[in-house]
From TrEMBL:
GO molecular function, one term: phosphoric diester hydrolase activity
GO biological processes: lipid metabolic process
Protein name per UniProt: Glycerophosphoryl diester phosphodiesterase
InterPro entries: GP_PDE_dom (IPR030395), PLC-like_Pdiesterase_TIM-brl (IPR017946)
Residue stretches making up the GP-PDE domain: 39-324
Organism: Melghirimyces thermohalophilus
Gene3D superfamilies associated with the record: Phosphatidylinositol (PI) phosphodiesterase
Length: 326
């Protein structure tokens, strides 16, 4: 190689990587994307009693460790959902459990021992029997010295049918708690008679098996599971720097832990723009996303990227909505 050829080659070795880095930066920077308004708010379990997250496991009875109550609402009740929507929630998250008579009860736990005076699993009771229980029975903020909601939760466990009848136009995120294919089939059967305009405002998430069956039977329903998130984000992380968005990211929902989000190509505004183009909703979950951590205080809101307009997960819609002028 001649001296001039060697010099040209050396210049290429400098410029080619530089062009590459400039391309990646410009293709993924959020500075060139106009931010759109405020976040939309997802109220976890409606307006509920909250509790410290430290030391929680899958077996922890959270009703026995609540903070001193600041409001009268119990999670997953009609009243808590009304309060959440009135406060400014755009979407309310609820939990469903299959009952003995094939209905879906709106209740967080698979068993009744923690929150009610009954024993055993929800599946062992009919919806009518569940209506007789006191869902506020087990709540205490002082290690069992007092039970501020005991006697006040009788008849407050609703069915999914009641919820959708009471809120015919409001958006819901339904959490199917058991990763059981049969529950996915039964939920599909329950939802299938609803008009497409109503199904457009419903998202369902849960275990991989239940969601896979549900998606097969209702392909136009927005769903989410760990597997659907992986199917979207793994190829996006591999190739999203080019602007490529995999088909698996279309018409779904992504719950992104706060600690993971900054590592996504184009975060925040370019990433949100790409997902919105695919009709996909992005919900930012506080911290590592381990145990339903939410943006629940003014300090939490301060951590949001400037101009962030995606969704945020909150356990205290009553505190957060006023901070965002809702």
């Amino acid at each position: 190689m001649t001296m001039k050829g060697l010099q040209r080659w050396r210049r290429k070795r400098i410029w080619i990587p530089l062009f590459f880095f400039v391309f990646v930066y410009l293709n993924n920077t959020s500075f060139l994307v106009e931010a759109k308004g405020n976040p939309f708010l997802l109220a976890h379990r409606g307006l509920s009693q909250t509790f410290p997250m430290e030391g929680i496991t899958g077996d922890t009875c959270t009703a026995k460790r609540i903070y001193k109550p600041e409001h009268p609402y119990l999670e997953n009740t009609i009243f808590s959902m009304e309060a959440a929507f009135d406060a400014g929630a755009d979407v309310v998250e609820i939990d469903v459990q299959l009952t003995k008579d094939g209905q879906f009860a709106v209740f967080h736990d698979g068993t009744l021992d923690c929150r009610t005076q009954a024993k055993g699993s929800v599946r062992e009771y009919t919806m009518a029997e569940l209506k007789k229980l006191d869902i506020g029975y087990g709540y205490t903020a002082d290690n069992g010295k007092t039970f501020p909601f005991r006697g006040k939760g009788i008849g407050l466990m609703p069915s999914l049918k009641e919820v959708l009848q009471r809120f015919p136009d409001q958006p819901f995120l339904i959490h199917i708690k058991n990763d059981d294919p049969d529950e996915g089939r039964q939920l599909a059967t329950f939802l299938s008679p609803l008009p497409s305009s109503r199904l457009e405002k419903i998202t369902v998430y849960g275990g991989d098996q239940a969601i896979e069956v549900l998606q097969q039977r209702l392909p136009n329903l927005r769903v989410m599971s760990k597997q659907t998130i992986k199917d979207c984000l793994i190829p996006y992380i591999a190739a999203g720097w080019t602007g490529y968005v995999p088909k698996s990211c279309s018409h779904t929902q992504l719950h992104i832990p706060e600690k993971v989000a900054p590592w996504l190509w184009g975060w925040p505004h370019r990433f949100l723009q790409r997902m919105e183009a695919q009709d996909t909703r992005v919900i930012l979950v506080a911290g590592g996303g381990g145990w339903s951590e939410g943006f629940d205080s003014a300090k939490d809101i301060e951590r949001l990227p400037s101009g962030y307009h995606g969704g945020i997960w909150t356990n205290r819609i009553d505190r957060i909505a006023p901070l965002l002028n809702r």
